[in-house]
Amino acid sequence: MSDPITLADVQDAAARIADGVHRTPVFTSRTLDDRAGRSLFFKAENLQRCGAFKVRGALNAVRQLSAADAARGVVTDSSGNHGQALAWAARARGITATVVMPSDAPAVKRAAVVGYGAHIVLSPPTLEGRAEAVARARAETGATYVPPSQHPHIMAGHGTVALELLEQVPELDALVVPVGGGGLITGCAVTGQSLRPGLRVFAAEPCGANDAARSKAAGRHLPPIDHQTVAGGLLVAMGPLAWPVLRDRVEAVITVTDDEIVAATRLLWERMKLVVEPSGATALAAALQGLPAELKRVGVIISGGNVDLDRLPWS
């Protein structure tokens, strides 16, 4: 088994970032338990600083920069949540941040990145366009690139989500985790199965951005094909560091339609009074339709809540 991080890395990250992040609550819902046919425990990272789990990885990475690297600032590419997180973490350390964002990124996320003090560079809404814009920004500033998911420091920070959840609800049978770039599911799978051997881990992915599911089925890492989904935060390719963890530790990738994601988002708003973005509701959509019947206690990671209120998915 080839893991880019260890449980010790995650525990070190938890200590490093403890004073900068929220220990987010776990919620339950009898209504959603009845629909799922099992007990669901929702780790509410929509209530995290900056509205998503991303701040855990960003802060862990920024706090490990050398003084010389920090002085040159940081740069990343993000549709919103990681960009906000890195901007916040950079401001907390007193360094500059540049965030490359696709031109179609929600206005609320762009405003938040600026509000946290970062400089935005807009790029075409393609993976290639974002990569080119990052390369130019790095050449111009000399800044350190802090990727959204594909770095051990990011993954270790993200693993603190599962570390906390298993402290709050120790006796879980399984975790359901949304997968985009793969940093969150890497951190959660390594952490969860290190602490609780036998814990079953499932990835939740939109049908319209299904490179993880296709890779899992093929047994090899495949590139994305024509990604389109309402879950904008998952419109990224699964990275090479995440692939071995998905291959070896994740039991299955459950794909869900945009209609199922929107319905799950609405359930979380209406039944649990939690403001969750579609990407954050993808794990619930998967938990409602794709898990083995024998799993009775399941942790569901709500990854974020940064919703553009002018573009609600059901309006």
Please provide the count of β strands: 10
Q: Residue share in helices?
A: 40-55%
Secondary-structure element pattern, one letter each: HEHEHHEHEHEHEHEHEHHEHHE
Uncertain stretches of 5 or more adjacent residues: none
Question: What would your notes on this structure say?
Answer:
With 315 residues, this protein is α/β, with parallel strands linked by helices. It is globular, with a radius of gyration of 18 Å. 44% of the residues lie in helices and 16% in strands. The longest helix is centred in the middle third of the chain and has 17 residues, at 152-168. The protein is built from 13 helices and ten strands.
Task: Pick out its properties.
315 residues; alpha/beta; Rossmann fold; 2 domains; 10 strands; globular
Concise description?
The chain is of the alpha/beta class. The chain is 44% helix and 16% strand. Strand 3, helix 5 (81-93) and strand 4 form a beta-alpha-beta unit.
List the helices and strands and how they pair.
Layout: H1 7-17, E1 26-27, H2 30-36, E2 39-44, H3 54-62, H4 67-71, E3 74-77, H5 81-93, E4 97-102, H6 107-115, E5 119-123, H7 127-141, E6 144-145, H8 152-168, E7 174-178, H9 183-195, E8 200-206, H10 211-218, H11 243-249, E9 250-256, H12 258-272, H13 278-287, E10 297-302
